[in-house]
Amino acid sequence: MTQIRTKIAGMGYYLPKNVVTNDDLAKVMETSDEWIKERTGIEERRYVTRFKDTPATMGAEAAKIAIERAGITKDDVDLIIFATLSADYFFPGGGVLVQRELGMGTIPALDVRNQCSGFIYSMTIADQFIRTGTYKNILVIGSESHSAGLDFSTRGRNVTVIFGDGAGAAIVQPTTEEGKGLLASNIHSDGRYAEKLAFMNPGSHSGVFTKDFSMYPTEEEEPYASLMITPKMMETGNYYPNMDGPFVFKNAVRRFPETIMESLTTAGYTIKDLDMLIPHQANLRIAQFVQKTLQLTDDQVYNNIQKYGNTTAASIPIALCEAWEQGKIKDGDLVCLAAFGSGFTWGSALFRW
Q1: Are strands 109-112 and 79-83 parallel, antiparallel or unpaired?
Q2: DSSP characters for 267-291?
Q3: What CA–CA distance (Å, rounded) separates 140 from 80?
Q4: What pLDDT score does 332 carry?
Q5: Are residues 143 and 59 in the same domain?
Q6: Is 205 a catalytic residue?
Q7: DSSP E strands: which ranges in 164-255?
Q8: Residue 86 DSSP symbol
Q9: How do residues 98-110 score in pLDDT, each as one tens digit?
Q10: Rounded to whole angstroms, how far apart are CA atoms 189 and 183?
Q11: Domain region containing 297
């Protein structure tokens, strides 16, 4: 019996035009180019043009390129999977906004909120629909606009210097070509550490944090407890993203090798067989640590965080497409995509190109 697997038929990405260097950030907070590069490897990132670029519009632009490269039209797409942590609206999700932006028919659109692991989770979902024959042309998008929600003060620099904006997209289709397509994937989570990397406000918890943080509303705040943002949050800046950097780093460098090796082992390969690893662009130091742990060469790992920062759900499709455009991924190559991030969530997907 012929085995159906999932292949990536076309890719595209979109980057907003505004280039923001480390020196630009040093003008508004106590930091420096040297400080940022030493800790993250980042030299610059892209920011959206407000009231022009949104996660949905950027995702749509990336999708147009992916659709054209796949040799299909927008009318051939039968499902949209949209991954983001920075949706245009609290609701509805961004998938339907992309469907509207591209003028598609009444096809289903679903949203995935797994942050840094969003594209990997989306690919595993798409794979199930492809292998069961439910859909034949699935548009998978990762798109982020972080710059609209960052703390551009010295207080927020540990988080703010890391993130950038952008979108990546892929069209996935079924293939029966022997040995090609998605060979193995895995996804995991550990919610015990959810608040270690989180953007909790505004949120539907009505200003009530976890007991571990001792941040339940005070008696004075009680009248405001039904509000999404309370005066106390405004005073302390608790409506910005927060991250325990060392804790996240420690977990990331453990989970990345685990998930990569899990996919390789499932498919019957070893690390020596891998042609290219595309890690989520979280921090260049994490990627370098993982590369050293797995004893991979520079030619086996692709990083572009230096130019774009951490674009969360968009980082893997942007890097994957860029590596392919540069000829670093060729037909027949064994390619692994891997991510770790907020949740904590992590996972990998192994493709024979």
Answers
A1: parallel
A2: HT--GGG--EEEE--S-HHHHHHHH
A3: 6
A4: 97
A5: yes
A6: no
A7: 166-175, 181-189, 197-198, 242-243
A8: S
A9: 999 999 999 999 9
A10: 21
A11: 181-194+243-352
Amino acid at 56: A
pLDDT of 252 reads 96
The tokens for 269 are: 């390969």
From the candidates 114, 146, 280, 336, which is the catalytic residue? 280
Answer yes or no: do 25 and 133 share one domain: yes
Q: Are residues 189 and 87 part of one domain? A: no
> Which residues does the chain have with pLDDT short of 50?
207-217, 221-226
275 with 225, same domain? no
Cα separation, 215 vs 150, in Å, equals 21
Q: Cβ contacts of residue 171 below 8 Å, gap of 6+?
A: 8, 9, 10, 11, 66, 67, 69, 70, 72, 77, 137, 138, 139, 140
Pair type for strands 197-198 and 242-243: antiparallel
Same domain flag for 24 and 167? yes
The total of structural domains in the chain comes to: 3
Instruction: Kindly state whether residues 269 and 230 are assigned to the same domain.
Output: no
- The residues, ordered by sequence, that sit 6+ positions from 327 with a Cβ below 8 Å of its Cβ are none
* pTM of this structure: 0.92
**Annotated catalytic residue 116:** yes
Q: Which of 116, 186, 201, 283 is catalytic?
A: 116
- Rounded Cα distance between 334 and 44, Å, is 30
280 is catalytic: yes
Number of residues assigned to the chain: 353
252 shares its domain with 335: yes
Residues 321 and 298 in one domain: yes
* Cα 252 to Cα 346: distance, rounded to the nearest angstrom: 9
Residues 184-211 have pLDDT tens digits of 999 999 999 999 988 776 666 554 444 4
Q: Which two tokens stand for residue 119?
A: 């594209």
DSSP H helices, the chain, are: 22-26, 33-40, 55-69, 94-101, 118-131, 157-160, 231-236, 245-267, 284-294, 305-308, 315-325
Of 251, 310, 321, 336, which is the active-site residue? 310
CB-CB contact of 159 with 242 (8 Å)? yes
